[in-house]
Amino acid sequence: MNISPYFSVILRQRINEDMTMRKLATKTQIAYIRGVNNLCDHLQHSPETTTQEELREFQLFMVNHGVSGITVNATLSALKFLFRITLDKPEVVARVCSVTVARKLPVVLSLEEAKRFISCATHPKFKAALAVAYGSGLRVSEVVSLKVSDIDSDRMLLHVEQGKGSRDRYALLSPALVDHLRDWWRFANHEGQMFKGSWLFPGLNPIDHMTARHLSRVCKQTANAASIEKNVSMHTLRHSFATHLLEAGVDIRVIQVLLGHAQLSTTARYTQVATDLLRQVISPLDALSIKH
């Protein structure tokens, strides 16, 4: 990211300190810096002298130039933090309002596609990592951050440390997933790629874990190898985990806990893609018994 000359070093330091004090996630901090930087590029002057009207024009500029609703809202969140916290000028963003974002149905694999997908993984590490994403419903950042010590095979649980929202939780560890992890463990120990107490999925340098970007690329390659035409991402595996559990009759509140969702409404959207459940519903038209 090229830093705008109007985004002064002093202001960057100040906002960084404010974000650090509040222990904002790294991704959030990067997004806030990017949002403020975009405002500086647009205004061509320091944001310290920004007016309400200039912010209104900036939001209109983003909307008219096809910036996605998600990006617009992320930028506005950054500016609210800047003016309310760092600059102590809440009146500047008093009239800023987020935009409505269209919610699309999540992409979900069928059971047959999920089986084909896992089978097409070419390396024991990748097969195990993808199996964790689908078999436990973990986010890609949670998968790559797992340590060997996070596996509790006695209680059949995975310990997810500091997941989204800085919350610890336990995730499902199934017998089939244990088999995948053991295959990877044996291979990694034979090849000297894993150390006790270290990362479950180390990178090229075993001191670091495999990156989320690397695993996401592997996911795309595996989907292509499995001839799956859907737009498959690591989050697709998480969506599929939740949907398949729901179709199997698992209580939605249990699924909420396993996914680490703070709100039940977030989990409830999977009812819209649980097609097996929809097929079980009898239409009121069928109850009329109208003869053709």
Automatic annotation (TrEMBL):
This is Tyrosine-type recombinase/integrase. Belongs to the 'phage' integrase family. Residues 1-87 form the Core-binding (CB) domain. Residues 104-283 form the Tyr recombinase domain. It holds the Pfam family Phage_int_SAM_4. GO terms for molecular function: DNA binding. It comes from the Bacteria. SUPFAM superfamilies: DNA breaking-rejoining enzymes. Keywords: DNA integration, DNA recombination, DNA-binding. GO terms for biological process: DNA integration; DNA recombination. The keyword DNA-binding applies.
